[in-house]
Write a sequence for this structure.
């Protein structure tokens, strides 16, 4: 079976299913499920992908699971002596990474196929401190050991017919309903939520939140982590914006009340360097407090920043401004002659990236970056710059 999966890893899976009769000794639907799942995890779970002894109960399990980078980050949120209970075990990525840090992990999953796969995979991975329990977490809750220190929960964000869900109360299980019961049993809950969730609204639904972590990988926001405590101590919990790149980590912390009260001025001219905050900061909405880094904002709603001196540790992309052009129909018609190729980004602009690309006939790629935005005095401007390597 492993040989068949590896041999057909690049095949068209629909065609492979249609040709199943050619391989009477192989459970082709199972093999196709394994190939599909392995394609899902190739980038985000490279060490699991490299281990062909692991079994995947369903391709969809690989879609929602944490990446290795975000799962490893969550190890920081628990103590080595802790007993962590993963209420929504799924593929078991988070359970496994917790097990590398803590004393004991309890993995709970109501689907038998997932539990069977988890047991086999944990043995293959040498994770002998994980106890797999099959069943509904809420039914099992009264009988769970009192030694549990942390509940980890990742509510399912798929509804009927595979529809994606973002509203917290629509996810399964409904964390807003069961949270009091969880906190009666353990002093701490870590909730992994959709990156599409609104921070302020979610905070109002989860009283007792003491920290929020916004995780992005390669400038794509992946997870929101809400840390909820039985005895909360933060009136406005800190928000930690974490960007996990290939070779470095960027972090920026603030709180929502600070952002609301923060006073900042907009510049009246573009300076030498341009900055675009990373995806975690933009998701968290730290649009004013980020100016503490020493940058100035171009416009209240553009979320681009500038400075005369280069800031080496700015948490985001940095650019050297080459020149600017006022946006106009005339400019768009001829711009491709001087800029045939560029990476285009639009922020607080009447056209999206694709529409501007069609209007200007500029192809994607090259060394130049074009930011179409609104600056001081509500002027629509095209900023042409070059990216500064990190």
């Amino acid at each position: 079976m492993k040989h068949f999966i590896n041999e057909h890893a690049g095949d068209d899976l629909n065609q492979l299913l249609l040709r199943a009769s050619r391989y009477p000794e192989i459970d082709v639907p199972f093999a196709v499920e394994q190939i599909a799942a392995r394609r899902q995890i190739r980038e985000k779970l490279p060490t699991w992908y490299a281990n062909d002894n692991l079994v995947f109960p369903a391709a969809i399990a690989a879609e929602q699971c944490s990446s290795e980078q975000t799962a490893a980050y969550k190890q920081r949120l628990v103590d080595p002596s802790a007993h962590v209970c993963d209420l929504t075990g799924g593929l078991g990525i988070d359970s496994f990474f917790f097990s590398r840090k803590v004393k004991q992990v309890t993995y709970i999953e109501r689907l038998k196929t997932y539990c069977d796969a988890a047991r086999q995979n944990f043995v293959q991975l040498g994770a002998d401190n994980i106890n797999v329990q099959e069943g509904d977490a809420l039914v099992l809750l009264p009988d769970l050991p009192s030694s549990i220190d942390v509940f980890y929960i990742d509510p399912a964000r798929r509804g009927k017919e595979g529809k994606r869900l973002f509203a917290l109360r629509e996810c399964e299980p409904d964390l807003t309903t069961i949270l009091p019961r969880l906190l009666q049993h353990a002093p701490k809950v870590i909730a992994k939520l959709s990156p599409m969730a609104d921070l302020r609204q979610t905070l109002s639904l989860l009283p007792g939140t003491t920290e929020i972590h916004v995780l992005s990988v390669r400038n794509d926001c992946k997870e929101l982590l809400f840390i909820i405590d039985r005895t909360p101590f933060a009136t406005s919990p800190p928000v930690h914006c974490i960007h996990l790149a290939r070779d470095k980590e960027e972090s920026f912390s603030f709180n929502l009340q600070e952002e609301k009260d923060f006073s900042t001025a907009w510049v009246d001219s573009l300076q030498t360097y341009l900055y675009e905050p990373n995806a975690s900061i933009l998701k968290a909405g730290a649009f004013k407090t980020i100016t503490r880094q020493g940058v100035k904002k171009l416009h209240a709603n553009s979320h681009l920043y500038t400075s005369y001196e280069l800031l080496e540790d700015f948490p985001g992309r940095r650019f050297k401004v080459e020149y600017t052009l006022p946006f106009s129909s005339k400019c768009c018609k001829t711009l491709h002659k001087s800029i045939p190729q560029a990476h285009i980004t639009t922020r607080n602009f009447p056209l999206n990236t694709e529409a501007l690309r069609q209007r200007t006939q500029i192809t994607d790629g090259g060394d130049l970056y074009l930011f179409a935005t609104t600056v001081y005095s509500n002027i629509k401007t095209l900023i042409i710059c070059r990216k500064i390597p990190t």
